[in-house]
Write a structure and sequence with these properties.
CATH superfamily: Vaccinia Virus protein VP39
Structural class: alpha/beta
Shape: globular
Helix content: 25-40%
Protein name: Class I SAM-dependent methyltransferase
Number of domains: 1
Number of helices: 7
Largest sheet: 8 strands, mixed
GO molecular function: methyltransferase activity
Radius of gyration: 16 Å
Number of strands: 8
Order of helices and strands: HHHEHEHEEHEHEEE
EC number: 2.1.1.-
Enzyme class: transferase
Keywords: Methyltransferase, S-adenosyl-L-methionine, Transferase
CATH topology: Rossmann fold
Length: 210
């Protein structure tokens, strides 16, 4: 499989049905359900789902009481997410979906209390990771968190999560990096050895403690 790198590539992948072959999950991810149960009700707090795909995790966030925005590079994926949310999301509080790039987020500073990512960051490398970290720090409120899930194996097309790598990429932007917890990232078609990690934004934009 050629790794999609642009919106055009991802749109083509969704049209071709590649998501069913590789990364689609036909229900909210088990690890996100556990994360939300541990945090308690969202109670109107704001959440961003980066690389939301066809929308299941955004729907789970909405069901937990968050006001949710899901972003993806692919308009094809977003069309599927909107259709799914129309059927599955709680009445009165459906997720909003929009096309956007995690390296250049179209939101004001401090918009979100929680950011979640299941399998977007591990496609990025080099400067793209720094842009991602800077943007997630910018849109998170002080004290907010990024719940990151990605590969723990260094195998194309994935670039693994490592403790040192996350420290290098996120601490300079005011994050405290939690432990990397091993699990298997399940899709309908495969199981990928992965890590989950909670990164907490501990400082404000001027460097003060949150």
């Amino acid at each position: 499989m050629t790794t999609p790198t642009t919106a055009l590539d991802w749109n083509r992948s969704y049209r071709n049905g590649d998501h069913h072959t590789y990364w689609e999950l036909s229900h909210p991810s088990a690890e996100l359900v556990g994360f939300l149960a541990a945090r308690g009700p969202g109670a109107g707090r704001t959440a961003l789902d980066i690389g939301c795909g066809t929308g299941w995790d955004a729907i789970a966030l909405a069901g937990a009481g968050y006001r949710v925005t899901g972003i993806d590079l692919s308009e094809e994926a977003l069309a599927l997410a909107r259709a799914r949310a129309a059927e599955e999301a709680p009445e009165g509080a459906p997720p909003a979906f929009r096309q956007a790039d995690a390296r250049d987020l179209p939101f004001p500073d401090g918009t979100f209390d929680v950011v979640v990512d299941r399998g977007c960051f591990h496609h990025l490398g080099g400067e793209d990771r720094a842009l991602y970290a800077a943007e997630t720090a910018r849109v998170l409120r002080p004290g907010g968190c990024l719940y990151l899930r990605g590969s723990r194996v260094d195998s194309f097309p994935f670039k693994p999560l490592t403790a040192q790598g996350l420290a290098d990429e996120f601490v300079r932007f005011g994050f405290a990096v939690g432990p990397l917890l091993p699990f298997h990232l399940q899709t309908d078609a495969m199981s990928l050895p992965a890590y989950a990690c909670v990164l907490t934004r501990t400082t404000t934009s001027d460097g003060a403690n949150a």
